[in-house]
Amino acid sequence: MGLQRESKAGEGLEGYIIKKSDDLFHVCQEATNEEVEVSKYYLDCRPLTHILQSRPPMQPDFNPLPKPKSLQIRDEIGVVNPDSFCNIISKEVFIIGGARKGYQATLYQLAHDTCSVSVHGQARTTVKCEDVATRMRLDSAILEGLDMISFCKMQKKSYIMLPCRSKTPPPDPVVPSSLSSHNNYDSADSLSAGVKTYDPWVANNAEDIEDTITDMKEKSRNGSPLPWLMNKEFALKLTHHHVVLKVSPSFMGGRLHNRFVSTACPDPFCGENGPAPDGCITVFCTSNGAGAMLQHYHIPVTDLSPAPLRKKKPKVSRPGWRHSW
How far is CA 306 from CA 211, 225, 271, 273, in A? Predict the structure, then answer.
């Protein structure tokens, strides 16, 4: 059989020990029957719990074999590759034994039996490889039993879980409101309890739609700040008086806002522009341009409100006419 010195070519070989002397073991490979000398430092890295006898006895023995205190002749062994842990340099490891058990550290250097780690960015310290683990000890021993349970608990405590966040609930469904709700009037102000509510999401026949529009107009008249102004019987009493009113900003984009207008005389529902549309009255005011000419408008009664009392004379006046405030 050929003899080969210890080198990287022996990494990963499998066989059994045929001779040992001082720090060297003579290993016979099963595949080639070649004898190789291997340092005991590489063989000690093999966990003893994974060493099996190469020749089982003739009669089966169901009792577990006693754990040998050291490697024996004809033990099957495997040579550990020391470079298998080089990929975890500068990465996080767990200290599972010794004085610093339970800490998470950064691995900086790996020797045969010891390694250099730094706990929480502090100065580097030297610990035993058997006391440091990733998924297995740095001495290549696989974690088993209580060691594995302790390691899993330690690893679980080292991570901080993000707090659970509940999803934003969806908005409440919006129920389509009727057009009559825009008038902000109570149901008690309606003319009768049998008035139908207009719903744009419900298809009605032509008669229902016409009746609904008529009811809405009646509500707008009764709900205006000047319900008496739309009463023609009352308006006939103003044949010799003008009613001075104030225009809201919603009419004509606010062009007549903060200005006073006067109702037409003798009929507030018919002026120089002709008869006023339903729900409107005829008013006039002086223009802001040169000559101060009179301008006539048909303004909805909902856009008019009583003018406040003033000591000054109004801008609009005609000889022989009196204004009613």
Answer: 31, 8, 20, 23
**What is the Cα–Cα distance from 98 to 325, expressed in whole angstroms?**
100
Secondary structure (3-state) at 10: helix
Last residue of a domain, one of 78, 108, 126: 78
Q: 124 lies in a domain?
A: yes
The set of residues, in sequence order, having a beta carbon less than 8 Å from that of 280 and lying 6+ positions away, is: 298, 299, 300, 301
Q: 243 and 317 share a domain?
A: yes
Phi/psi for 92 (5° steps) reads -80, 135
Residue predicted with more confidence, 23 or 179: 23
Strand partners, 260: 246
Residues 232 and 294 in one domain: yes
d(CA 163, CA 156): 15
Least Cα distance to 317 among 281, 282, 284, 290 occurs for 284
Answer whether residue 164 is part of any domain: no
**Mean pLDDT throughout 208-219?**
68
Q: Is residue 92 part of a domain?
A: yes
The domain that contains 147 carries what CATH number?
Answer: 2.30.30.30
Tens digits of residue pLDDT in 142-170: 777 777 777 777 777 666 666 667 677 77
Report pLDDT digits (tens) over 79-128.
555 556 667 788 888 888 888 887 888 888 888 788 889 887 788 889 88
Domain of residue 270 covers 227-324
Check: CB of residue 158 under 8 Å from CB of residue 104.
yes
